Amino acid sequence: MSKQAIRQRLLNQRQQLVASSCAHYSDVVQDFVLASKLYAEAELLALYASIHNEVSTERLLVAALLDGKRVCYPRVDGEQVVFIEVSGAEDLKSGRFSVPEPQGQTVVLPESLDLIFVPGVAFDFHGHRLGYGFGFYDRTLAACKNAEFIGLGYAFQVVERLPEEKHDIRLDYLATDRELLEFKHKQ
Description:
Largest sheet: 8 strands, mixed
Number of strands: 13
CATH topology: Rossmann fold
CATH superfamily: NagB/RpiA/CoA transferase-like
Distance between the termini: 30 Å
Radius of gyration: 15 Å
CATH architecture: 3-Layer(aba) Sandwich
CATH class: Alpha Beta
Shape: globular
Structural class: alpha/beta
């Protein structure tokens, strides 16, 4: 099945989720993350603002700030993504593609990030992800040499194998409403 066919099928399925199911499953996904050593050891996190029934990161933001961690969000700048530090959800305003983006000016260097949360339309059991097809995350993650990458998704978004391309960046972890998976592919 092509990337576009997988993308369309899973976007349609995700759109069918009712708000209460999104909230419940998002809570379960975030619970897996919050209970992990990965989260406990991270000091500087990059979250994303969820859209179109993506797994929410709101509880992660609140917990991270309460735990004294630094948090940033992506902002599209041309063809790249820059990470901007935030002090709370009130720092996010509608940006490109109507995605909430940080409005501040405190740019975080990609190499200083510890943990980057990555949205996706589909994921597989080998650490591959399929996004919306714009390539923003793949281009950006390539510059984040020291960070761990964790995808957040619903269990139905996980397929056996996604088509991959040379430029695709693989995840280190994937949290779903069923489990937290770790992928062993970095040296």
